[in-house]
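Private note to self, pasted from the team thread so I don't lose it. Backbone tokens:
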């Protein structure tokens, strides 16, 4: 198994959110200029209030990508019966650029985990054509697989996730 895929499988992103895929494009997600998202690492809620800077790799600026951010652990990881909650979608991102060059079709919603440790997953898909992705009807009970099938996105070309949990008084000491 690829070293890039292994943490996604261990974190159950592969299986619960998407099927196995081969990463082919670089994806860098950074919050508050220097907190880079690494698979399985925890970020404190106060660091993820504003949308991150997301750099897309690739070799061709003419290629278009869609970025999806989702939480598969709603309302809590032990019983995620409301899986998934959509936090952000940006489409038509040119390769070799960042999300500011794309079209935000679902605005960034700050993660607010209430019960347990949540995974927040960034998935990057290569589009067949520009302007081929439309927003879903709802953020609630979003299904990445169904959405990608509906829009012809196929499997991801990159993914990364972080963990977050509610800040409580005991952790602030």
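Design output:
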């Amino acid at each position: 198994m690829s070293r890039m895929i292994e943490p996604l499988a261990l974190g159950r992103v592969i299986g619960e959110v998407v099927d196995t895929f081969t990463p082919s494009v670089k994806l860098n997600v950074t919050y508050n200029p220097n907190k880079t998202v690494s698979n399985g690492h925890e970020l404190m809620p106060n660091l993820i209030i504003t949308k991150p800077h997301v750099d897309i790799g690739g070799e061709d600026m003419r290629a278009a990508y869609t970025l999806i951010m989702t939480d598969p652990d709603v309302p809590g990881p032990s019983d995620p019966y409301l899986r998934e909650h959509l936090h952000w979608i940006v489409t038509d991102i040119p390769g070799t650029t960042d999300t500011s060059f794309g079209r935000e079709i679902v605005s960034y919603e700050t993660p607010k985990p209430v019960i347990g440790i949540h995974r927040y997953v960034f998935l990057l898909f290569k589009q067949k054509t520009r302007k081929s992705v439309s927003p879903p009807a709802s953020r609630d009970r979003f299904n990445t697989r169904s959405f990608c099938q509906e829009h012809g996105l196929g499997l991801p070309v990159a993914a990364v996730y972080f963990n977050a949990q509610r800040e409580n008084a005991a952790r602030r000491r």
